[in-house]
Amino acid sequence: xxxxxxxxxxxxxxxxxxxxxxxxxxxxxxxxxxxxxxxxxxxxxxxxxxxxxxxxxxxxxxxxxxxxxxxxxxxxxxxxxxxxxxxxxxxxxxxxxxxxxxxxxxxxxxxxxxxxxxxxxxxxxxxxxxxxxxxxxxxxxxxxxxxxxxxxxxxxxxxxxxxxxxxxxxxxxxxxxxxxxxxxxxxxxxxxxxxxxxxxxxxxxxxxxxxxxxxxxxxxxxxxxxxxxxxxxxxxxxxxxxxxxxxxxxxxxxxxxxx
Amino acid sequence: xxxxxxxxxxxxxxxxxxxxxxxxxxxxxxxxxxxxxxxxxxxxxxxxxxxxxxxxxxxxxxxxxxxxxxxxxxxxxxxxxxxxxxxxxxxxxxxxxxxxxxxxxxxxxxxxxxxxxxxxxxxxxxxxxxxxxxxxxxxxxxxxxxxxxxxxxxxxxxxxxxxxxxxxxxxxxxxxxxxxxxxxxxxxxxxxxxxxxxxxxxxxxxxxxxxxxxxxxxxxxxxxxxxxxxxx
Lengths: 259, 232
Known about the structure:
By secondary structure, chain A is mainly α. Chain A has helices at 2-5, 10-17, 31-42, 44-49, 51-61, 72-85, 89-128, 133-161, 166-169, 172-202, 210-234, 240-257.
């Protein structure tokens, strides 16, 4: 890691990683952002092997690439290291292609299906417990602590590993994270649903006696279960959001035409 | 809403809209954050939080995975928080649920439009890349900077348009429909909560409904129900 601090362009590449998807397109997907992020690390090539080598490397690194944006930093670091080390272009291209699938699957499982729902659910639970605006701040702080760490760690791990980037993917920390994050997210999301229900019912300013609040809570919970079952059955033909929009539209119309 | 308030809410909507994909994906695009900010800008952060919590339940389904089309909740959530906060300022807090129901409907429609608009931006990015392909193939770093900046500006313009759409025509719809609401507030409250929680439960089951995760989901649900039992 100490060697990385001396690498020119490392800080700029780290900053550019956050805009990896700015020029997202169906043709190159993250390719342009990848090239933009890797460019500061390629600048020493000008001095080492001339402007043509730098430009060739940049053109190569701006080709198609698709993976999860956070863990793409592993590929950025590895590809930059390979270019600087003078690996053959075909090997670098094969490495980039080979990393797309595993990094996509890793990020989707670790972040989109694990860490994001876990943090969102924790934010809702904190809100239900009375944290008010602090719940939002806690959500952002917790989520981004891992988000930023993942991007920075990935760049360093990729740079250290170069062509042997599979070593970074097999990191015990990453594997342990994958094992832990899904159960934690499931537990928190499960906990958040009844917590939000009770918070919303009690926080509505209705000041109901406990037995009436209970009727309220049970009625909503039963109706929610029916809606969830309907959404699960309709899946494939209708997304949950489409069905929800439809039902809310009916409720709005019902409230307006109510005698 | 004053022009300064509209400008502030639009700026917050742009930050949220750009965050989803373009920069920096720090999840300020989540409805819990966006609606809180929208409500806070209009002086009622707790009302924004209520809208944010309800919208967040719908957004649990939304995972911004690559090329898949997904709704953009950020700009409509910011607008929803602001619209609802404005309604509370003009009305009483007890009447928040019918307004929230209509606001969520408007936000859901705009979020779907947001997903569609994202595809337009991606196609425009593709067209810009095709124009600059010779320079990219020559390894010109300025072409990369131009494409990244162009993508950012397109997405920011998209987010601004979405926020204004949700805030101005959307806000008008919310005010008009809410003023014509004759049903009981409980219909809006129970109906909205049931749909939101049902949508969240369906998303949770889709995400965690298999293997070991399903057991943890049920454990969380049981623990949450036990906590609710004690609380109520």
